[in-house]
Design brief:
With 197 residues, the protein is of the alpha+beta class. The protein has one domain. The protein contains four helices and eight strands, in the order E-H-H-E-E-E-E-E-E-E-H-H. Strand 4 and strand 5 form a beta hairpin. The longest helix is centred in the N-terminal third of the chain and has 19 residues. The mean pLDDT is 90.
Length: 197
């Protein structure tokens, strides 16, 4: 049975570029040469990208995440699971030791599994998790990057199209609707969904 450890995360470094540019979106909407809605389109592109990322539970453009856990797993076969999938790399794993001092755990002590869509950190052979300050919340932290790369060209075309469809949907339907994603956007994004089961 997998141990359930309290965890949460926050974005440390957001993406530096958007997956779809405002100009490309204006071309898609047939608004070339019209600048009145540029600000709105830019805002809708960001909102559509964020909603599509939330739907898939991954980041598209490289985004640095700091995830914290209340403790290490108790079993040697258990792992620290990431809340955001599509993990490209882990920068550091830190913990508060039993004396209350922050320590950086050497990467030779653990294996980062990026084959699993959700991603996880597992113990290396013949290694045990270190002792931590058990009275402290968020005593273990991992900083990692989720994304396909730093450029919009690194993102699969299906995701780009899903973002454009969602942006067009929001641009043309400005009142609240029961459906949160355009249906075709969902179909295009489904292969990228990161499940944590």
């Amino acid at each position: 049975m997998i141990e359930n450890i309290a965890t949460s995360y926050k974005v440390i470094t957001p993406p530096e570029v958007e997956v779809v540019s405002t100009d490309d979106m204006k071309n898609y909407l047939k608004l070339d040469g019209i600048s009145a809605d540029d600000s709105l389109i830019t805002t809708l592109l960001i909102a559509a990208r964020q909603r599509c990322e939330e739907y898939c539970n991954i980041k598209f453009i490289d985004t640095v995440i700091q995830q914290v856990y209340d403790k290490f797993p108790s079993g040697t076969k258990d792992a620290l699971n990431f809340s955001i999938g599509n993990v490209a790399r882990v920068a550091s794993l830190k913990y508060i030791d039993s004396d209350g001092a922050e320590q950086t755990w050497d990467s030779s002590n653990y294996i980062v599994d990026t084959y699993k869509k959700a991603g996880r950190v597992c113990l290396a052979s013949n290694v045990s998790f270190p002792s931590i300050d058990s009275d402290r919340i968020n005593s273990v932290s991992i900083r990692y990057t989720s994304g396909f790369g730093v450029l919009a060209s690194d993102v699969p075309d299906a995701i780009k199209h899903a973002i454009m469809l969602q942006t067009a949907y929001m641009y043309n339907n400005r009142e609240d609707k029961a459906k949160t994603l355009a249906t075709l956007s969902e179909y295009l994004l489904n292969p990228f969904i990161c499940s944590f089961l």
